[in-house]
C-alpha cells in the first residue's frame, strides 16, 4: 500500500506557483489577487477563509477578505459581488458557503463573473467542464484529478465507483473521470442514497471515491485487493484520543481498508490540502487570462 500524501503534493505545487509568481513580477506583471467574501461569523468558515489567505501569502498572491454580518441583504451582497467583478485588480472571487438562509447561494454563484469564478461553481464553468472546454474546475475534483496524475495512477479503462453525488464533488468528478482525457477514460458508477447494493458495486471497482460524510462507511469487506481509495469525507467526531476531545474521521475505515488497497488517501492530509491548492491554481490561471470567456 502507498499513501497518497496530499499535503506533500500541495506543498510541491505551492513551490511551483511561487516560482511562477516571481517570473510574473520579473516581467513587470502584478501579483495574482484572490478575494473572498465572508458573511456571518461561522467559526469553520472563518478558519477556512483565513487558511486561504495564508495560502495566498505563502505563494506571493495578494488577498482580500470582505467581511459582512449575517444581516446583509441579498441585494447588498449582489452589489459587493458586482463591485469586485468590475475590479481589474482582483483576479479570483470566492463567496464562502454556507450563507444565511435569506440569501440564495445559487443566485450568488450565478452573480459571480465566470472569469473570476475560481471555485468553479458557476453554471458556465460547469457547462464548459461537461463539454471538455477550458474552464475553472471545482476545487476538490480538481485536487483529486491532480493527485491521480502526480502519483501516475492509471485510470484508463478502469471501473470507478463514486459514493456521493453532490454538485461540489461527486457529480463533477464523475464527469471528469469519464471524459476522454488523462486522468480519465474510466467507466464511472455514481452512487447515492437510492443506489442499491453499494457494497457489491465497490467490490468490482478499481478506484473508489467516497464523498458522503459518513465516518468509516467503507470497510475492508467492500473493496477488492489492490483497489485505489480516495477519501473525501471529513467528519468531526468525539474522541478520547485527542486533547481537544474531537478527531477528524474520513468515510473510510482506514486501518483495515489500507491493508487491502494499492493507494489510499489519509484523513486529514489527503484531499483537503489539494482542495485549497486547487483554488490557488485556478487563481493563477485567472490572473494570466488563460481561459477566455466570450
Question: Brief overview, please?
Answer:
The protein is of the alpha/beta class and 294 residues long. It has ten helices and eleven strands.
For the residues shown, what is the average pLDDT? 95
CATH class of the largest domain: Alpha Beta
Low-confidence stretches: none
The CATH architecture classification of the largest domain is 3-Layer(aba) Sandwich
Largest sheet: 6 strands, parallel
How far the N terminus sits from the C terminus, by CA atoms, comes to 46 Å
Count up the domains: 2
Notes on the structure:
The chain has about 290 residues and is an alpha/beta fold. The protein folds into two domains: about 25-115, Rossmann fold (3-Layer(aba) Sandwich); about 140-270, 3-Layer(aba) Sandwich (Rossmann fold), CATH 3.40.50.720. It is built from ten helices and eleven strands. The chain has helices spanning about 5-25, 45-60, 75-85, 105-110, 125-130, 140-150, 170-180, 200-205, 255, 270-285; strands at about 1-5, 35-40, 60-70, 90-95, 160-165, 185-190, 205-210, 230, 235-240, 245-250, 265. The strands form three sheets. Strands 1-11-8-7-5-6 form a six-stranded parallel sheet. It has a three-stranded parallel sheet with strand order 3-2-4, with helices on both faces. The chain has a two-stranded antiparallel ribbon with strand order 9-10. Strand 5 (about 160-165), helix 7 (about 170-180) and strand 6 form a beta-alpha-beta unit. Helix 6 packs across helix 10 (about 270-285). It starts with a strand and ends in a 7-residue tail after the last helix.
Amino acid at each position: 500500500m502507498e499513501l497518497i500524501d496530499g499535503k506533500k503534493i500541495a506543498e510541491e505545487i505551492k513551490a511551483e506557483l511561487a516560482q511562477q509568481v516571481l517570473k510574473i513580477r520579473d516581467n513587470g506583471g502584478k501579483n495574482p489577487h484572490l478575494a473572498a467574501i465572508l458573511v456571518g461569523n461561522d467559526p469553520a468558515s472563518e478558519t477556512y477563509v483565513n487558511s486561504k489567505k495564508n495560502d495566498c501569502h505563502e505563494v506571493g498572491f495578494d488577498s482580500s477578505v470582505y467581511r459582512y454580518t449575517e444581516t446583509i441583504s441579498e441585494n447588498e451582497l449582489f452589489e459587493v459581488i458586482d463591485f469586485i467583478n468590475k475590479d481589474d485588480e482582483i483576479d479570483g472571487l470566492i463567496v464562502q458557503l454556507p450563507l444565511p438562509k435569506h440569501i440564495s447561494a445559487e443566485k450568488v454563484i450565478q452573480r459571480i463573473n465566470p472569469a473570476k469564478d475560481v471555485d468553479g461553481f458557476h453554471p458556465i464553468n460547469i457547462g464548459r467542464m461537461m463539454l471538455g472546454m477550458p474552464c475553472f474546475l471545482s476545487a476538490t475534483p480538481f485536487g483529486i484529478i491532480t493527485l491521480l496524475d502526480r502519483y501516475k495512477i492509471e485510470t484508463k479503462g478502469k471501473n470507478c465507483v463514486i459514493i456521493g453525488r453532490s454538485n461540489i464533488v461527486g457529480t463533477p468528478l464523475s464527469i471528469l473521470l469519464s471524459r476522454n482525457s488523462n486522468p480519465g477514460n474510466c467507466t464511472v458508477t455514481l452512487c447515492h442514497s437510492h443506489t442499491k447494493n453499494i457494497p457489491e458495486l465497490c467490490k468490482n471497482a478499481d478506484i473508489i471515491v467516497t464523498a458522503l460524510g459518513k465516518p468509516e462507511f467503507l470497510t475492508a469487506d467492500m473493496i477488492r485487493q489492490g483497489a485505489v481509495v480516495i477519501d473525501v469525507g471529513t467528519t468531526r467526531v468525539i474522541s478520547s484520543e485527542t486533547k481537544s476531545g474531537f478527531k477528524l474521521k474520513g468515510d473510510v475505515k482506514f486501518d483495515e481498508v489500507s491493508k487491502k488497497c494499492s493507494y489510499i488517501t489519509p484523513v486529514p492530509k489527503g484531499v483537503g490540502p489539494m482542495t485549497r491548492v486547487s483554488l490557488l491554481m485556478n487563481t493563477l490561471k485567472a490572473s494570466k487570462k488563460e481561459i477566455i470567456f466570450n
